Amino acid sequence: MPSATRPRIAIVGAGIAGLTCARRLADAGLAPVVFDKSRGLGGRIATRRTAEGLTFDHGAQFARAHGSDFAAVLKAAIEAGMAAPWPAADAIDAAPSGTGERIVGIPGMSSLVKPLATGLDIRVSHTLEGLRRDGGTWRLTFAEAEASAHVADAVALCLPAPQVAALLPDHGSARAELERVRIAPCWTLMVAFDAPPAGLPDAARCDAGPIAWIARSASKPGRPGEPPGFVVHATPDWSRAHLELTKEEACTRLLTALGDLAGAPLPPVRHAAAHRWRYAMTETPLGRPFLEIAPDGLFAAGDWCLGARVEAGHDSGAALADRLLTARDLTRRAGADARVGTADA
């Protein structure tokens, strides 16, 4: 495809779906631009770093491959020294047939996406505020005063389904499909103690109470053992019922629940904080790899299209990239725009 007629593609969201889509497009010779409202990459494949130097994987806890495509991505991350298996998690449950080991990023989960991001044009601290058709192209505007508007021939919204729906006042049929998707929230507790607490596992799913998941940070490879740190995820039901708590209130209640789970007094707390994931785990997916919102180059993708796994986000982004690479109508429009001299604004 001649460079003068390459479609200009904007990808909104630098999680696994957006970065996978951008990586495939860039490897095929295109030059996508990725925007994200955060300062870091990975979306819910996240690592929180505190002012005291502590780190917590407060989003996705691991990744596991069901298919060969995502298995190759994880293998590449391992070979690059950015990921490794998590043996301590083997006690949680038996791996489903045909799946690989639980893999974590090193030194944090967000390292898993760094190989995908290499060499891409990624613009962080860009919160998409407006999206509209303008003279045959898409015009994106952002909430930050210093962020310039951007013009594209195609836009991939790699955001949670409710956030995509909020951007589409004029696309009723797409909104209806998006509103059928169900994504559960999750309150997360990040806590470090002065001494190792008794009665808490390295990694476990919980069957009762407000806690759904617990993991000791140092049980993952490449993490320091001191101070003893844990990540706790609340259940979807508890998170829904307490969604509007303040972070301080959520932190206090989850610490109490953690003490109940341990069955013994907890050591003095060195650091504790809560994070609310308003859109954390897909419960009812779209049922296909991506959503084509409009025939003139507007799409959406994310793990919510296929299911509640990191791999689902990867597969969604890859499928959307394949669609964009075969979109001859976009190529024709890009060529026409190049001849009349359109450019980013």
**Gyration radius, in Å:** 21 Å
Number of helices: 9
Terminal CA distance reads 24 Å
Shape: globular
SSE-based structural type: alpha+beta
Q: What proportion of the residues is helical, as a percent range?
A: 25-40%
Instruction: Trace the largest sheet across and list its strands.
Output: 7-2-1-11-18-17
Largest sheet: 6 strands, mixed
Structural features:
6-stranded mixed beta sheet; 345 residues; 5-stranded antiparallel beta sheet; disordered C terminus; 9 helices
Care to give the gist of this entry?
The protein is of the alpha+beta class.
Description:
The chain has 345 residues and is α+β, with helices and mostly antiparallel strands. The chain has helices at residues 16-27, 68-79, 114-117, 161-166, 172-180, 236-241, 247-262, 310-325, 328-340, and strands at 9-12, 33-35, 48-49, 55-56, 83-85, 103-105, 121-123, 128-134, 137-142, 150-152, 154-157, 182-193, 203-205, 211-216, 229-234, 269-284, 291-294, 298-300.
Secondary structure elements and their pairing?
Elements: E1 9-12, H1 16-27, E2 33-35, E3 48-49, E4 55-56, H2 68-79, E5 83-85, E6 103-105, H3 114-117, E7 121-123, E8 128-134, E9 137-142, E10 150-152, E11 154-157, H4 161-166, H5 172-180, E12 182-193, E13 203-205, E14 211-216, E15 229-234, H6 236-241, H7 247-262, E16 269-284, E17 291-294, E18 298-300, H8 310-325, H9 328-340
Parallel strand pairs: 1-2, 1-11, 2-7, 11-18
Antiparallel strand pairs: 3-4, 5-6, 8-9, 9-10, 12-15, 12-16, 13-14, 14-15, 17-18
